[in-house]
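Give me the fold.
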Amino acid sequence: MATTTGARDADIARAAAAIADPSRARVLSALLEGRALPASVLATEAGVSASTVSGHLAKLLEAGVVRVERHGRHRYYSLTGPAVGEALEALARIAPPLPVTSLRQSGHAHALRRARTCYDHVAGALGVALLAALLERGVLEGGDGQFHPEAAEGDRLSAPGNDTTYRLTEPGRAALAAFGVDTDGLVAGRRPLIRYCVDWTEQRHHLAGALGAALTDRLFALDWIRRGGRRRVVHLTDAGRTGLERTFGVVLDS
């Protein structure tokens, strides 16, 4: 995706044109989970034929918003990085809601509010509860996890946050290491260790950045959360509910 470099202007129109199609928008929404998916799955998500989705994927590749990897005879597509996911979440904030025409759609919307992936980290009620618990336990410091629109300077709903600086504490580093998350290794990476998003359904902060992704990976590895049958939905397992409460003090309504 084009970015501003020096005095050059970003080609916003080109990126916008690439996603300004309902089918391509559905493809990108499916990829917001952070997983690489084959064209056949993306065709199903978009509700188009295999030949049609190939044309859409070619446009998205040309615009630089998706990338492709070959594994044997198959090709797997994914977003080019967190910046694309953040841009899509920001567009969701200003976009009108799609009409709900079935009970299934209503159930999907409720599930997204409860727990979902925001690119590669957890969001929704689970995501904001996790960040709040990390602050309460002293794993993180620097903010209260709340979105304060009256005092916001750069923060907006469904967008990466900038107004608050969260920091990992030394006790928090030890607690995360005991949980199986190596924060020293994360610091060595190119991605910022700690970022946050202003959750569009909960209107509070959820944890993003390398730490948010690593925690989410660990939750999946422990089978504390599982991917749902609909895109981006995750489900908290019974083991996860018990484990998160015992480990971090996360309590969610049933």
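Residues 50-63 form the longest helix (14 residues).
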